[in-house]
């Protein structure tokens, strides 16, 4: 039985692309690439419910240089779409021989995304990934050049599709045809396309010379305050976020909590000077509930445990200048 490698994000397009190829008697080996911006949870949740069990490959180390300086530029935000596609396909190509596969498939649809799925970009990605003639896009295949598996009779072109644009109507018919048990909506996707998140990514790349995986994992959690070039404070917005931040205490340089009133948990990354810890305590107090005492008592754990008494009347508006948001930082 012929084999193909299928890039599987957990989204409907990649799911249907795999089903179309499997319907022609080809075994598809699904690969899911993960970074701090795409963790693969959707693929691991959706895939098995539809008979797809993805192999997970971590590409963070290869992705970070691309994020810092993408040869083909960014999309609307910090999303290096073209270079990301090239990287993922190069990784897939490197797996072909060891997995006994003969070509690679993706769920890309011509014209669906303006930067990475126009005809010129699709050709560029195919060429620079080293998969010229070996990259099949089943959902748009009949609008694109014939691939080697089509020319060699491994797969029938007439049974593939010629979709273009963003319409989802054809997908509904395919969902019925392949009896898809569960699928995700088009919403969501790469965090790097979200404006507020992209600002936080820019902040990390600007102030951290050798950013760690954890720094990027924390970007989706809480409120972020740039205190100075060497320090950043993160405050949880909900109890769940507080619990997540607490799991990163060992990675941080200090932790803060108000012990006489409900409020956020704080994690400081960077230099924990006395001045920075005092400012962090004031910011945390501004986002805490009013205590029964005439002050907020903030417990700080850095090199040693200490306490800051912050008078009542602290307003969070005072600290908006430190927020890493379009209005703040």
Description:
The chain is built from eleven helices and eleven strands. Helix 4 crosses helix 5. It is elongated, with a radius of gyration of 24 Å.
List keywords for this structure.
329 residues, alpha/beta, 6-stranded antiparallel sheet, 5-stranded parallel sheet, elongated
Rg, nearest Å: 24 Å
Instruction: Tell me, rounded to a whole number, the average pLDDT.
Output: 94
Please, how many helices?
A: 11
- Work out the strand percent: 15-25%
Q: Report the structural category.
A: alpha/beta
| Unreliable parts | none
Molecular shape: elongated
Let me know the largest β-sheet: 6 strands, antiparallel
The count of β-strands is 11
Widest sheet: strand ordering: 6-7-9-8-10-11
User: Fraction of residues in helices?
Assistant: 25-40%
**What separation lies between the terminal Cα atoms?**
56 Å
Q: What is the ordering of alpha helices and beta strands?
A: EHEHEHHEHEHHHHEEHEEHEE
Oligomer: single chain
SSE arrangement:
Layout lengths: L2 E5 L4 H11 L4 E8 L6 H9 L5 E4 L1 H9 L12 H19 L3 E3 L13 H10 L6 E2 L11 H4 L17 H9 L17 H13 L5 H5 L5 E6 L2 E5 L3 H8 L7 E5 L6 E6 L3 H13 L8 E7 L3 E7 L18
Parallel strand pairs: 1-2, 1-4, 2-3, 4-5
Antiparallel strand pairs: 6-7, 7-9, 8-9, 8-10, 10-11
Helix pairs in contact: 4-5
In short:
This protein has 329 residues and is α/β, with parallel strands linked by helices. The protein is 33% helix and 18% strand. Strands 6-7-9-8-10-11 form a six-stranded antiparallel beta sheet, with helices on both faces. Strands 3-2-1-4-5 form a five-stranded parallel beta sheet, with helices on both faces.
